[in-house]
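Newbie here. four chains, one complex. Structure please?
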Amino acid sequence: MGRPKKFDPEKAVEQAAETFRVHGYAETSPQSLADSLGIGKGSLYHAFGSKHELFLKSLERYTDTQLADLKAVMDEGRPIRERVRELLTGFVEADLNDPDRCGCLVVNTAVELRASDEPAVKLLGRSFEATESVLHLAFIAAQHAGEIDADRDPKALAGLVQSSMIGLRVLVKTTSDRDRLGSIIDAAVAAI
Amino acid sequence: MGRPKKFDPEKAVEQAAETFRVHGYAETSPQSLADSLGIGKGSLYHAFGSKHELFLKSLERYTDTQLADLKAVMDEGRPIRERVRELLTGFVEADLNDPDRCGCLVVNTAVELRASDEPAVKLLGRSFEATESVLHLAFIAAQHAGEIDADRDPKALAGLVQSSMIGLRVLVKTTSDRDRLGSIIDAAVAAI
DNA sequence: AGAGTATTTGACCTTGAGGTACAAAATTCA
DNA sequence: TGAATTTTGTACCTCAAGGTCAAATACTCT
């Protein structure tokens, strides 16, 4: 009972994640957040408590979505190198298509955040681990399928692909050189 | 002539770079900047014009220093893989030894920055290119020395090492797992 | 010493961040 | 219909960011 909510909290968290991704945590004001959700600032605080609490919820939702997307790509029935290439190319192309180069909320937050923000650091740590785990499992499977040499360390490969992916998403913030980025992807795929 | 400066502008820019590295651009206030330089806020504005101008100078100095450090390591007369390992390990260890995981000003700025900040984006772009170039040249030399297969693309390898390096410095913000980070370094070195 | 020049400082200004308070509005239940 | 409950939105609060300014200070040159 009581007055019905004007907005869908789920959608709001999703929209907030996008706002944080585009403008960053520090540069997103409660007012702009409220505006982007189409509600008053008071309602926002009533519903979410604080900017930081809303941010944590947004970040969590974002990591969930991202992980699902990653799994979707890695679950495709194609050669492992094709899937990894698709993954890296997808991120790079997405970033290049955005003139503001906003990039990935997880990467952005990992850098912008203070180490003292423990809940956020934990969320990010879990997200990075989950990503690595998906890659790790895919590489193990690929080894069993004979696509990757059995003497390679699948976990280390997962870490290498992950760190290259993150590095690419940072590099793309200051360059639009598709050849250069593409050759990095080539090298990453070749390293598997 | 005129009243002599109370501080050394060179040292001040260096100190400012460190403050920006530790706290980030947005989170560094003119007041704290002035405090860290041991001067009044007015003096700071008189000497540097604005927070942003000081930031650009700081960033430029930082990139110069960083590039010199990189060259120093890559100029050592040791096997290429040892040098690359030393490079990556050095950054990771430095970051791990800092409880606040402040990391690298260039990486941090590339992420925190708005794409609309053209002078900063240019500086960062040049810095990333210069870094890649040093690695590129080192790999070419290593190929001539027979340390790296001649059929590898040295520029792509440079890009891969660079992006892994950046990725590692982001990952280390949320993890302290030396084994995991170490195995990523192993994989990166093995990929050369 | 005095003129001229450069630097220093704290006081002051405007703007907006992050958040609170409260009365009005919209619903359900009896 | 009225009571209870919940959400809404504006007005308001405090604090600090980023920056400006004028007066005081410290130097050089003549």
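Moderator note: The mean pLDDT of chain B is 97. The radius of gyration of chain B is 19 Å. Thread marked as resolved.
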